[in-house]
Specification:
By secondary structure, this protein is of the alpha/beta class. The chain is built from eleven helices and eleven strands. Helix 1 runs parallel beside helix 3 and helix 7 packs antiparallel against helix 9.
Length: 324
């Protein structure tokens, strides 16, 4: 925009480039054809993001970051979290084109997004994964909706999917084995040669046992637990973990927030998004019926901060109760 209006930046432009290299998005201000100043904003990288990227890479998945931010900002984030490739300065339609290009090259693509501009790409991808605290259009366009704004849940979803497919293959194997062995004997195929035959009562028992075995094996998925890497001992660049990580142990606290003004599912999403975006909040579960929000957080998040987040979302915080 500055170039389009023939505005030269000089030192301020170089300052903006420096800020971009630090992972921040520079915003330039001009008046009467002259650049007046620059400020920068930045999304805080969540402590678990680098871990999630590492786990996805360990699963043999190529991780690509699609962003509308400028290239230098995107490259700075790439260095922090370790993604394989970055495609920056893209419009919403460009994200969809990049997904299509990857598919045309023979790859299966899963897209993770939370905004309106991610909706075309989420719909185009083989698997669309929306962040639960994202916009309604992103959620409607996705195949999977994550309940928390945590990229580790992407790894969890993939591990669960692999466990389901593995369970299905096991069930098919045992179902076929039971029938391959039992049906020929029951039909008398081996009677003339070996004198083998199957009592109908035993056949009925074997068939029932086969069904019970397959169902029981499927029910093992109830005890599925995702395997995640241990939290990295070294601090990731650009991530302040002083308050949430100490000697390998998270400082957990649970609070219940009583909120007035929520009347529908959209209200629940707004409150959940406002809370989960707070640094230090690990999880927020908002319930419309009880008008409450249960949050898990570290000790650094004050009640005033929680109150401000709820009120900024347009609702009234009645009281806060500490449960743990």
């Amino acid at each position: 925009m500055m170039d389009a209006h023939n505005i030269t930046g000089g030192q301020l432009l170089r300052s903006g480039e420096t800020l971009a290299a630090e992972g921040k998005t520079p915003l330039f201000f001009a008046r009467a054809g002259k650049l007046m100043g620059v400020i920068a904003v930045a999304d805080v990288v969540k402590p678990t993001s680098a871990q999630a990227i590492r786990e996805l890479s360990g699963l043999g998945i190529e991780v690509v970051m699609l962003t509308g931010d400028n290239a230098k900002t995107a490259q700075a984030i790439q260095r922090q979290v370790g993604v394989d490739r970055v495609v920056a300065e893209v419009f919403p339609q460009d994200k969809e084109k990049e997904i299509r290009r990857l598919q045309d090259s023979g790859k299966k693509v899963a897209m993770v997004g939370d905004g309106i501009n991610d909706a075309p790409a989420l719909a185009r991808a083989d698997v669309g994964i929306a962040i639960g605290a994202g916009t309604d259009v992103a959620i409607e366009s996705a195949d999977i909706v994550l309940m928390k704004s945590d990229l580790l849940d992407v790894s969890t979803a993939i591990q669960l999917s692999k466990a389901v497919i593995r369970n299905i293959k096991q069930n098919l194997f045992w179902a076929f084995i039971y029938n391959i062995i039992g049906i020929p004997i029951a039909a008398g195929v081996f009677f003339l040669s070996f004198g083998w035959k199957l009592n109908p009562m035993l056949g009925a028992f074997a068939m029932s046992f086969s069904s019970v075995f397959v169902v029981s094996n499927a029910l093992r998925l109830r005890w599925f637990r995702a395997k995640h890497d241990a939290f990295p001992e070294s601090r990731q660049a650009g991530v302040n973990m002083e308050n949430i990580y100490q000697k390998g142990v998270f400082q957990n606290m649970e609070k219940v927030l009583f909120i007035e003004g929520m009347v529908c599912g959209s209200c629940v999403k707004h409150v959940q998004k406002a809370l989960t975006e707070l640094a230090g909040v690990r999880e927020a579960v908002v319930e419309l019926e009880s008008k409450t929000a249960k949050v898990r957080l570290d000790n650094s998040v004050s009640d005033d901060t929680l109150k401000a987040a709820v009120e900024n979302a347009g609702y009234t915080l009645v009281s806060i109760q500490e449960t743990a």
